[in-house]
Fold these 2 entries.
Entry 1:
Amino acid sequence: ANLLCADCHGLAAAEFKKPFHHPVLQGAMRCIDCHDAHLEDSFRAIPNTERQNACLDCHSEKRGPFVFEHLAVRANSCQSCHQPHGSVHARMLKRSQEHQLCLECHSMTAGIAGSQPPAFHDIRSPRFRNCTICHREIHGSNASPFFLQ
């Protein structure tokens, strides 16, 4: 089935060849694990009343419920941070540097959903460029509103 999908979806097939990717080409996953080929819009995740996001079927530890949820996870938008087919960045992230990704939402820009980092987070210092060193439970936490544990 994956080869049949690749005939029309060449861009997605090429993304599976990137260094960090879901194991579709290795045969450990199929396109239909996440997509329903019979829907008019085949890029939509398979509808299911039990879940809202196909990603959480395999990555259930990210599901929660958490006392403190990261807004991106609550909005069921894994693609806010991750490229679903494949990426040149570790953990299939959209950006090579964590802080750049975090600052897409956590900045002083008006209309952005996240709050800005506190003043002591001097982004010019390498110490504050790997956000998940401290904010380890970035998908959600039951102990910390800042995802520290």
Entry 2:
Amino acid sequence: MKNIIKKILISILQNEAKLALKRHSPFVIAVVGSVGKTSTKDAVAAALSPALNVRKSKKSYNSDIGIPLTILGLNNPWSNPFQWILVLFRGLVEIFNKDFPEILVMEVGADHPGDISELSSWLKTDIIVATQFAKVPVHIENFPSREAVLQEKLSILKTLKPDGYIIANSDDEEFTEAFKDMNRKAEIYTYGLMPPAYALGSSEQFTFDENDRVNGFTFKIECESNVFPIKVKNVLGDQHKYPILAGFTVAKVLDINTVLVLDGLSTIKYEPGRMRIIEGVKDSTIIDDSYNSSPIATRRALEAFTRVPSTGKKIAILGEMLELGKYGEEEHKKMGGLAASSSDILVAVGKFARDTAEGALVTGMDESYILQFENAREAGKYVEHLIEKGDLVLIKGSQGTRMEKAVIELMAHPEDKEKLLARQEEEWSRR
């Protein structure tokens, strides 16, 4: 019965979304890839907002329900039937809204086969922004092979209009070349941290507060023989450079004044749990990357963790990377090895903790500096006793591991958790 009701809801929502698109003809931008979709969507919207009326996906609305909700500008009422009735009514009203946005920026995800390819039956896009495709993509256990995941991601090209553009991450040669091979007519612009790229990110420098704690970074965008300085606050990592570069590139393609673009990029509000810098207990610093995880995302987080200077210990608290299927054990061992190279203490959490620990041991980490726990809360409570002034703590794990619970145990001001952390809504509190 639940599945039948869900199908009916999706059908009504999609029909309302189709009618809204037909009536208002907005410019549609879709963001696709294995990692960084939400951050990229936010950066693209920020870059365009000073010049245009933009609507973006809320949070990670990237599914068969989330995409039509984004088009209609509505919230997900989850399992509340009365709220759903109200949402469907508001969807009808939105079709005739005179203030409908000029630009829609949506992330598009694929948890199962057909999730993206089915969009082409009713959604048409003007720009596709490709992030990166992982060697072991998230949700791979739901697909027959890695190639099947790649083809599902690439099926977004079926939605691209004949005069559309592709904005691709040139650091991911496989994904970029696949887009080129499947659509040789579309104009392609690239962004990345390695040349050649139309918009190239370079010259990273960390910034610090009055207590010498890292509080962000700066870097430069090199584009068409010009250089533009960018300052990023309260977050760390290449995973925030790529979205900014993507947003900048989309704005250049749309010929928006660069001054307005840079102003817009300076207003990005970074989502919780994505390499967010949070004040920790005992004058420590937490890098909260607890929103979700995958091999490529964990690798990026640990690489950033390696580069960040610290006056104290570096402690990596790593939860599970879920939905990897047959790749689970091996990928956790690899991440344990990376953690051993970037951390003084490794705290492994969940059912793959033993594999993560084994990877660190094989790499040469002393067994006395490797800890294992069943869940995030236990790990956080124990690590609280290890932390000292100046320590730097990275916390990462898939959504299902609820690693934000470890952050709560270690943050200096847990009363601010609802403002700073992922999954603090009432819906999550019941899980």
